Structure formats: structure tokens, C-alpha cells
């Protein structure tokens, strides 16, 4: 049986800069910090940084949950991200946005009032 999201991995060319930036974005230090991989615990899920990778903005998109999408966009843009796709209401008061991190990856956010944390396994 496939379970829910566990890890999102972003390739980065500058591991030290990416570690510092994501520490600010998620307001947490990595729990795993090695030259070959840096891992952050974000709300029980993992954000991983892989060094010497080729960042990109194509392929799968992973959305991180937030409660106030406009405030988070403002905060993360102030940290150096750019808006790749504006905040959109995709229906039933669910809002999404795509930000570009300083390393060439997409950092996507979702404000979904219907998300049921009790259903996570």
C-alpha cells in the first residue's frame, strides 16, 4: 500500500547556501546534515537537499501546506524567492502558488481548508 508523502528532495548546486536559505524559510535547522544530503523535518515530513544536482522547474510539483498563503508568499519572497505563478483560487477556497527558490527549483504552497490531518498515514 502506498502511503502519503514522506520526502521531497531538491537538487542544489550550492548546498551551504541552500541549507541556510531553507533553514530560514522553514524556520528550522536540519536534523540530518552531511556533505551528501541535508534533511529537514517539516511538520513531520522531510525536505531533502541533494548537492551537485541540476535544479529545475519542470516535472512533479510538491505543495507545502500553509494557513495564510499571502503572508507566506510575502515572507518567502523577502527571503529571496520569486513568484513563478501567482496565487490562484483553484476552487472551494483552496489556494495555491508557485515560487522559484534562489537555486532554480519550484517551492509550491497550498492553503487547503479541507485538508484532514487525521487522514495522514
UniProtKB/TrEMBL annotation:
Signal peptide: none annotated. PROSITE patterns: VOC. PANTHER family: GLYOXALASE-RELATED. One of its GO terms (molecular function) is lyase activity. The lineage of its organism: Bacteria, Pseudomonadati, Pseudomonadota, Betaproteobacteria, Burkholderiales. It holds the Pfam family Glyoxalase_6. Keywords: Lyase. Residues 4-112 form the VOC domain. This is Enzyme related to lactoylglutathione lyase. InterPro entries: Anthracycline_SecMetBiosynth, Glyoxalase_6, VOC_core.
Amino acid at each position: 500500500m502506498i502511503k502519503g508523502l514522506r520526502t521531497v528532495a531538491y537538487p542544489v548546486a550550492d548546498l551551504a547556501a541552500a541549507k541556510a536559505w531553507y533553514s530560514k524559510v522553514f524556520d528550522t535547522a536540519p536534523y540530518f546534515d552531511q556533505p551528501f544530503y541535508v534533511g529537514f523535518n517539516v511538520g513531520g515530513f522531510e525536505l531533502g537537499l541533494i548537492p551537485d544536482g541540476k535544479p529545475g522547474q519542470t516535472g512533479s510539483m510538491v505543495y507545502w501546506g500553509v494557513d495564510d498563503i499571502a503572508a507566506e508568499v510575502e515572507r518567502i519572497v523577502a527571503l529571496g524567492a520569486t513568484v513563478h505563478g501567482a496565487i490562484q483560487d483553484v476552487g472551494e477556497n483552496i489556494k495555491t502558488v508557485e515560487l522559484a527558490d534562489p537555486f532554480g527549483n519550484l517551492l509550491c504552497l497550498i492553503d487547503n481548508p479541507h485538508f484532514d490531518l487525521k487522514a495522514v498515514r
